[in-house]
Amino acid sequence: MRSTLAFLLVTTLAGCSSSGAGNEQPDASGGGDGGVTPPTRGFQIVSPTVDLNPGADITYCYYFHAPNTSDLAIKKWASHMTAGSHDLMVYLTQTDLQTPGSLSTAKCGLASDGPGPVWTYSAQSPDYEAPLPPDDGNGVPVGQPIKAGQSGFLQMHFLNTTSAVLHAHVELDAYAYDDGVQVTQAAPFFTLNTQIDLPAAAPAPTMGTVSGNCNVASSVKFFVMTTYTHKQGVHTFVKDGTNTVFDSTTWADPGAQHWSTPFFSFTSGKLTYQCEYVNPNSYRIKYGDSVTTQEMCMAMGYFFPATDAAGHMCLDSVMLN
């Protein structure tokens, strides 16, 4: 299982602070039966429970306002997924894409939701966590700023391979630094390729590749990098010039590359990524959110120092911010 991580632009998350100011908010803003103790400082979001019939394969989006009432600097993301949950992706948005508290399969995901989603966290093992570095190399902790009441959504892929009805939900926990702690601000860097077009197998499986090159300041430091595809993906990689930074041959468990002090910089000034596919299906597959009938190609990671919480997004080799 993965344990990581067509819109036209990514907008800056306005109003974010690099301080650790915030409040204790143990609320679960979803309607589910939360089974994990919420963070003492930070917040928890629990999705409503979904009933999954045997063979169900469906993706829902749960839209939220983060329940913190003042700005926070997040030091760790964590999640818990019950049986029937296949994977989770968390996106932050500048505005509400749907009414907070809504659970919907309509327009659910990056390709469908239009401008604004910022990839923030992903997981596919039942229990997973992604801590930010406690030291940037100069004795300052690294944190991701989340403004009070931040808008966003959980994208949840549910898959029931059993013969019984399952009752599934996911829980997202954001652990924050104490009030007053100054941090080095971190933000995501992620790519998206919308040029995927895999012809139907006729009769043998068809192969396809998409790739991109994205500008990266050689001065910034990365502490994690991974990739994301759907089930037709057979190989992904990220390179810095000719140096392979990350490589995976398993779509369902690509893993992630982690760095500690002195972290990693793209000294070439370019991040090159590639996704390779084999389509064994009798239908054409193009870019989209459906895990079963469409495909994605993303490389994503976290870097510091960042100038804003939206970080950087590279769409089809064009830097949008």
Notes on the protein architecture:
The chain is an all-beta fold. The protein has two domains: 24-184, Jelly Rolls (Sandwich); 187-319, Sandwich (Jelly Rolls), CATH 2.60.120. 1% of the residues lie in helices and 46% in strands. The chain has one helix at 110-113; strands at residues 24-28, 42-46, 50-52, 57-65, 72-81, 85-93, 103-104, 118-123, 127-131, 142-146, 151-159, 166-168, 170-176, 184-185, 187-192, 197-198, 206-215, 221-228, 233-240, 243-248, 257-258, 270-279, 285-286, 298-304, 312-315, 318-319. The strands form six sheets. Strands 1, 2, 5, 9, 10, 13 and 14 form a seven-stranded mixed β-sheet that branches. Strands 21-18-24-15-25-26 form a six-stranded mixed β-sheet, with no helix packed on it. It is globular, with a radius of gyration of 19 Å.
Question: What labels would you give this structure?
Answer:
seven-stranded mixed sheet; six-stranded mixed sheet; 26 strands; Jelly Rolls; 2 domains; 1% helix; mainly beta; 321 residues; 1 helix; globular; disordered N terminus
Please give the radius of gyration in angstroms. 19 Å
Structural class from helices and strands?
mainly beta
Q: Biggest β-sheet: count, sense, barrel?
A: 7 strands, mixed
What is the CATH architecture term of the largest domain?
Sandwich
What low-confidence regions span 5 or more consecutive residues with pLDDT below 50? 1-34
Count of alpha and pi helical runs: 1
Shape label: globular
**Mean pLDDT level:** 88
Proportion of residues in extended strands: over 45%
- SSE run: EEEEEEEHEEEEEEEEEEEEEEEEEEE
Q: Name the CATH class of the largest domain.
A: Mainly Beta
- CATH fold field value of the largest domain: Jelly Rolls
Helix content: under 10%
